[in-house]
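Sequence, please.
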């Protein structure tokens, strides 16, 4: 796999995770109970993850409507994006070149909970256990959580609510992962471990998806193989969960809203499934967006802005390059908003995107004006600039708060260091 493709996939799985389906009750379960989760870049598409579509899911439930009618396309130009005035509430900086800042080796913001707190991750100088806290950006106070009892290795955020925190980190082996669930009321951690099959990709973490019945799905490619993503699942709260292969989950992405399930496939087919009907909002990829030559089954990124599908397509650029194109399918697909960037997070009013080196962009016409971190206002259909290209993965927008990374000179004239910031955008 080329370096550009590997980098793009790493960025894709650092996007926010989406909920994976329970095949037996894929539509009904989502309508009965869907947990509202923080839309952060973990996922996992994050991390997303970018979650993977169940092919069986798109045919579950009622028959879909006929092919969608041609949509009105609105294209937003990043070069015309004006800087966004931000009310910055909190900032943290990393140490430079491994040097110590006070008693800490490193501290950074990871994500935003659905009740407006910031998940903070830090290391102590003498050891490297995972240390997490919840920062109130209004007061500046941090509630440091009880130690979860694991080392800090490539933390991925799955679900952050007022009730619980769901996280995944490596267990130390090449294919092992620890699932952590923190009960915020009881202030206790629950821990379990799963082992993915030998040979899966190890250069970046798996795609993660949590279905409405609290079954965690882990999706990964096999090292050096261009095949579609494979999936395995385990119950979230078992102490020793059995990992179950999910062969029907391959090749695409799925996300759950308050009363809909949205599925998206690399071919460009996007389906919104509700309690009474399915609607096909797209059957094709964006114009001039061919699949990457070395990896035609490269998964799309999928987020939900409320119930609006936000799909990021990796597009071929030259022989081995990849550029990204995000499509926001508004009004049931009758209006399409296109942005030449990778969607990292979304809430009901905003979509947070990045463009530039962080997503392996290789456009010969790229300029500093169209590289960086941007936010789309879905009410006004405008795009604004937040920062230059990020140096670290965590980015999030949740209920009027935005988290992003930038960099600044370290002061010694030789280094730069990442800066994590949280601001209000409403």
């Amino acid at each position: 796999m080329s370096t550009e493709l590997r980098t793009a996939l790493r960025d894709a799985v650092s996007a926010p995770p989406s909920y994976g389906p329970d095949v037996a009750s894929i539509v009904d379960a989502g309508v009965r109970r869907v947990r509202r989760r923080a839309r952060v870049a973990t996922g996992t598409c994050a991390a997303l993850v970018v979650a993977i579509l169940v092919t069986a899911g798109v045919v579950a439930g009622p028959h879909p409507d006929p092919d969608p009618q041609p949509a009105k396309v609105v294209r937003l130009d990043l070069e015309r994006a004006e800087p966004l005035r931000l009310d910055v509430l909190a900032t943290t900086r990393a140490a430079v070149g491994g040097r110590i800042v006070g008693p800490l080796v490193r501290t950074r913001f990871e994500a935003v909970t659905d009740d407006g707190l910031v998940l903070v991750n830090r290391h102590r100088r003498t050891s490297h256990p995972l240390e997490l806290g919840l920062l109130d950006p209004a007061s500046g106070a941090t509630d440091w959580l009880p130690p979860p009892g694991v080392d800090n290795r490539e933390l991925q955020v799955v679900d952050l609510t007022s009730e619980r925190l769901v996280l995944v980190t490596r267990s130390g082996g090449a294919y092992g992962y620890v699932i952590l669930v923190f009960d915020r009321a009881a202030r206790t951690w629950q821990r379990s471990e799963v082992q993915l099959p030998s040979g899966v990709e190890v250069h970046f973490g798996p795609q993660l998806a949590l279905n409405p019945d609290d079954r965690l799905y882990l999706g990964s490619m096999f090292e050096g193989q261009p095949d579609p993503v494979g999936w395995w699942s385990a119950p979230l709260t078992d102490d020793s969960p059995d990992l179950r292969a999910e062969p029907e989950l391959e090749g695409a992405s799925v996300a759950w809203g308050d009363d809909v399930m949205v599925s998206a496939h690399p071919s460009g087919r996007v389906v919104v499934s509700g309690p009474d009907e399915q609607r096909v909002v797209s059957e094709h990829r964006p114009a001039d967006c061919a699949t990457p030559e070395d990896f035609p089954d490269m998964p799309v990124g999928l987020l939900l802005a409320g119930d609006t599908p936000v799909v990021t397509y990796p597009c071929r650029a030259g022989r081995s390059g990849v550029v990204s194109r995000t499509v926001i399918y508004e009004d049931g697909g009758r209006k399409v908003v296109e942005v030449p960037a990778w969607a990292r997070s979304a809430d009901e009013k905003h979509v947070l995107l990045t463009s530039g080196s962080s997503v392996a962009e290789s456009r010969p016409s790229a300029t500093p004006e169209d590289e960086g971190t941007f936010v789309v206002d879905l009410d006004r259909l405008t795009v604004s600039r937040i920062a230059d290209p990020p140096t670290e993965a965590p980015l999030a927008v949740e209920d009027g708060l935005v988290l992003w990374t930038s960099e600044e000179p370290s002061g010694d004239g030789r280094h730069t260091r990442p800066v994590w910031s949280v601001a209000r955008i409403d």
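The longest helix spans residues 3-13.
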